[in-house]
Design a protein that fits this description.
Layout lengths: L3 E6 L8 E7 L2 E7 L12 H4 L1 H6 L8 E3 L8 E3 L2 H19 L6 E3 L5 H10 L5 E3 L6 H11 L15 E5 L9 H12 L3 E6 L4 H4 L3 E4 L5 H14 L5 H7 L3 H7 L5 H8 L3 H14 L3 E4 L10 H4 L1
Parallel strand pairs: 6-7, 8-9, 8-11, 9-10
Antiparallel strand pairs: 1-2, 2-3, 4-5
Helix pairs in contact: 8-11, 8-12, 11-12
Length: about 300
């Protein structure tokens, strides 16, 4: 049978890259990134390329099963979809009857289908939904909603056309978003400067023009000092600030004490380097992207870092 090409979506992580699969005799034999998706350039990360191995895994569940015996015994009985769904519904309703609707929580990996899950939860009367974001990007989400009025996934990062890219605990070149990597590399090839702020020397830091190795938990102090320099040296767009920033005078008063010298004692990054970064950002404005990363979501002040 001749090979055919099937357009699909990778399910190996929550990025969900568009993919193309070569299919022969009903089985996938090769995967690549979609040639129609901007930024992918036909590429996939190592995890995405391993999708066929997952498909062919002889331990992959391929039909519904219900456990028999004690947990951990490894005893399972193959059942029909109707029996499996009835079993789950019965157990779920038993929990609701004994403990209330809000005793039900659904946790998943995120991705494009969360609205379906949450619609189901609302239908049975519980708001309890969570995923890995609580230890990943919840700080970015809450900050985006607070400042822009929409979530982080609606924020667009134009890596290809920015002049200065700041990645704060965002190890993009060891991550799994292929389009982001390709776009960032295109930007660097076009002359974009890269600054990396992190607690370790990552692969991304190795490609940076500026690398700031700071003490764990001091990102907020570093950012306050950069803001201090931008405001006190008038390195910001006053017209834009007047139109869109509320409380700028209060921010300037608050950051007055957070000088680069103060931040040096907190972070270990020399004050002169902090001042230099602020001036580099001003020179590249407005084509500057500062990505707050995900790792600072584990700190108590993570909302303010963003």
């Amino acid at each position: 049978m001749a090979k055919t090409t099937v357009n699909s979506v990778c399910g190996m992580c929550s990025v969900r890259c568009p993919i193309q699969a070569e299919v022969e005799n009903g089985r996938p034999v090769r995967l690549q990134g979609s040639m129609h998706a901007p930024g992918l350039k036909g590429s996939l990360c190592a995890r995405g390329a391993a999708g066929i191995a997952l498909y062919e895994d002889d331990e992959r569940p391929q039909y519904p099963m219900i456990r028999e015996g004690a947990r951990g015994e490894g005893k399972w009985r193959r059942v029909s979809w109707d029996e499996a769904l009835d079993y789950v519904a019965e157990r779920l309703n038993k929990v609701r009857a004994e403990h209330g609707d809000r005793a039900v929580l659904l946790s998943d990996r995120g991705g494009p289908f969360r609205d379906v899950y949450r619609a189901f939860l609302r239908a049975i009367g519980t708001p309890n939904y969570c995923n890995h974001d609580s230890a990943c990007a919840r700080n970015v989400m809450n900050a985006a909603v607070s400042i822009f009025g929409f979530g982080r996934k609606d924020v667009v990062y134009d890596y290809k056309n920015c002049k200065h890219l700041v990645l704060q605990t965002r190890n993009i070149f060891e991550a799994i978003n292929v389009a982001e990597v390709n776009n960032a590399m295109d930007g660097l090839a076009a002359g974009c400067k890269l600054s990396v702020i992190d607690i370790r020397a990552s692969i991304t830091a190795g490609k940076a023009d500026n690398f700031y190795l700071l003490r764990p938990g001091t990102d907020y102090a570093f950012n306050l000092a950069v803001i201090h320099v931008l405001l006190n040296e008038d390195l910001y767009d006053k017209k834009f600030a007047e139109m869109w920033i509320s409380g700028l005078d209060e921010l300037k008063a608050f950051t007055a004490q957070h000088t680069p010298e103060w931040a040096e004692a907190e972070t270990g990054v020399p004050a002169a380097r902090i001042r230099d970064l602020a001036r580099q950002l001003a020179a590249a404005a407005p084509a500057v992207i500062w990505h707050p990363g995900w790792m600072v979501a584990r700190y108590s002040d993570s909302f303010y870092v963003c």
